[in-house]
Amino acid sequence: MTRSRFDLEDLFFPVEFRPVYFKTKDEENSPGNQSAATSRSAGGTAESDSSPEEPSDVQKRLMELPEDEVLEENGQESTPEQDGQIEPISRYKAIVDCEREYVFKVVSESYELITNQEAVDIGERAYGKLFPDASNHGNFNTLSVIAPGTRAHCHIDLVHESFDFAVWEQDEYIPYLRVTNSYNSTHALKYRIGFVRKACTNGVIFDDEVVNVNLPHTRSKLEGEDVSEVVELEADVERLRKLEENFVDYLKQLQEIRVPKLYTSPVAARALDLDFGVDSDDEDRRERERRKAKEFNREIQTRVDRYYPDLGPNAYAMFNVISDYATHREKAKERLRINTFQRRTGDWIRDFIGQQDDPHFGLDSYVEEELEMFRTAQALG
């Protein structure tokens, strides 16, 4: 089973820290009368001018270096330039992709990396705690890899097909562990539990508290140690079992709730928190958003035609429609939203089930705004 177009090995590339240098320039030669010495790092963070490398008797202005000019240590304290010199900044360092010579971010000297390999190793250890027999059933499979072209962050889904459970006799699900890591501080190291339907590989993220890791990125005390072995890892087996029970119960409840075809696109838009600006005052934007709404409706109706005949016009079929859309994104930019969409799908299940307790619940009021949005876009048949 796999729904990934990427290889896991693509994310196990070498990364390292390198010193950061800034070009200094005499104040008298710089434009204007600027005495402040500040600059943005390659990662976009403002840095102070209080670096100890600056001569105290000469005013300098720090000049920002492009990412491709972040230099390796060359054994010299500074590099002479025609209009200044390259000065090292001792309290900061750059995280660099060694294969592509790409700078992910400039960080403080206390920052330590969690590599993708380490993150996956910890994930496999966590999976083993949740399923003690996992080590007796061969290696883990990679269900999916989500990453941008820069490889600055990633979501990696680990699955063991030996561990599945049935909602109905012919409808089986497999729990998977989503490993999230980044080299540019956009995502903290995180492990989330999801469920994937065997028949179609549609996935949904359902919990982010089953696995907890105590491993801050500033971990100098672990220097030279195997991070995957020394990390403080909590895997709540009882919570996972309860999660599986609740998931099955939710899906069975969804099967009892009728969702006529007219409401399918509005319900999907609400579940995924999509708001198309179909009534924008800007004419060009309004037309773009209406086209997007029509395309979204087309994609949803294609999936409705796939699931409704077999599963019936109910919320369980609607869940499959939504999770299918969330999981199978083809364009590179859209694939980066899979994690968000799958988490929203999990949130929607709980929300929609909870709405049924309201005696005044009705689909017309539940998706009132979404219905109007699609009607304005003339996207409903």
UniProtKB/TrEMBL annotation:
<protein>
    <recommendedName>
        <fullName>DUF932 domain-containing protein</fullName>
    </recommendedName>
</protein>
<feature type="compositionally biased region" description="Low complexity">
    <location>
        <begin position="35"/>
        <end position="49"/>
    </location>
</feature>
<feature type="region of interest" description="Disordered">
    <location>
        <begin position="23"/>
        <end position="65"/>
    </location>
</feature>
<dbReference type="Pfam" id="PF06067">
    <property type="entry name" value="DUF932"/>
</dbReference>
<dbReference type="InterPro" id="IPR026325">
    <property type="entry name" value="DUF932"/>
</dbReference>
